[in-house]
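Structure tokens please, single chain.
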Amino acid sequence: MKASTAHWKGHAEPETTLLRAFQARRLHHGWLLAGPEGIGKRSFALAAAAHLLTRSPDHRGDHFDGDMDGASGRLLLQDKHPDCHYITLGPKDDKEARKAEDGKPFETARNIRVDQIRSLQKRLTVRPSLAERRVIIFDSADLMERNAANALLKSLEEPPADTVFLLIAHNPGRLLPTIRSRCLVLDFPALDDAEMADALRAARPELPESEIAALVRLGQGAPGQALSFAGLDMAKIDALLSEIADHGDGTHRARLALGALVANKANRDRFQALLAYAPRFAARRIRDLRDERLPGAIAAWQEIGALASRALVLNLDASAVAFQIGSLLARLAPPR
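Here you go.
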């Protein structure tokens, strides 16, 4: 993953916290970047890595400002810096690994595996080779299998010299408590609407304001999530989900229309977007319920999440899954 100086706006507090620790030469070895998926934690980690690897603590400023024109910066941009390590989901098996080696799209494993951690640890036995320190990014740490987490814990308990761990976590509660306790936590709250709009305009300046407004609503404070919906006509899906949750769907019309929007292989990206968005949509609606519908609504939200998580793995029919999601959302509608 190529390091960059760019990251989302709206994260001034974690940026200031890490930057001031670096400038004071009191940089802790472990940092936990905690917040919803798509909020900008990965971009933040890459910008932080660029600064830590190309600047000295004496370099003053209020923002990450990696020197991407120097030798280290150019290596970072080429994803070849020897002191920057990016750990994420690898290929699922040998067949997918060959695809990755050939530069082709590949299916990832479900977890970060222990062999990835052990391979990394072998490289940590020597000092940084180019920069004054080494930066290791885990994306995301809450996807580590148990043995991998235990192996990482050993490195956090006895950190190698001049090494900084940046652990991205969408769900930090899944991490071992002992890992969390050895890291300083940087919280990444959802962006407000103005920050969202600014981030989306910066990332996709060609988008019309009407789509920016729709993406702000759909992204729910997470610009990465919002951008994954760009160009997929998600406003129609949002409108259908809202109609079902508000009024039910006695005639099946809305659910059939929802299924038609994601049917066929040509709409696979939109189907994946629906799977990502539907649980968030349901969770947002549940927060507004205060009557007897709440227990059933919570159960429906849990079923939607479970269905979304297994739909692609089991290669379930997209139209049928969309119809089922609509049926579960109908439980949130007021009684007629």
